[in-house]
Design a protein that fits this description.
Elements: H1 2-7, H2 27-42, H3 46-61, H4 64-71, H5 77-88, H6 95-107, H7 114-128, E1 131-138, H8 144-155, E2 165-172, E3 179-184, E4 187-192, H9 193-207
Parallel strand pairs: 1-2
Antiparallel strand pairs: 1-3, 3-4
Helix pairs in contact: 2-7, 3-5, 3-7, 4-5, 5-6
Length: 208
Amino acid sequence: VIARTYATAASPAASAAAPQIPLVLHGIDGRYATALYSAAARTQTLDAVESDLKRVRTALASDAAARAVLETPVADRAAKRAAVAAALGGRPAGADVTKNFFDLLAENGRLGLTVKVAEAFEALMTAHRKEVAVVVTSAKELDSKSLNRLRESIAKSPLVGASSKLLLTNKVDAAILGGLIIEVGDKTVDLSVSSKVAKLDALLKETI
């Protein structure tokens, strides 16, 4: 229903072919984000709409009062519209697609979902670019050479697709004692010394 409703507000120049959605999202925010992604893909404004939503998220993150207005059910729609307009800071880069979308949220009383929808849209864009977040936790900070070797090894592993773009981050946690903990999306490979010690401790307790 959301997708059909939003489609009526899309540009008449949009392609009739339905774009491929790179990620299945659930929940109301996921459905709105998917409808927005579809409209932006049809009008070739994905990057522009993404820029608009990032600007809104950044503005609301630094303005607790504006976010409270959006997320408070008793706040009137005019105040919510004003908060979004201020966060956008002028004409949106996504032009009609972004404007029509926020108009739809306002009409449906869903502007309180703005931040969640923006986060869901970002997840769609990440999947669209085939980007995979990788967090490598080590006891000490790893040098660039070690990180590059890890990147190459992970890229060749079954943990990610062949054409994935890895967004690698090194997190330092002295508590793991040594070794590595590698998190790829929702998968975790624990090669830490602390994990091995815990397994050894459990084995010794079972033996005793």
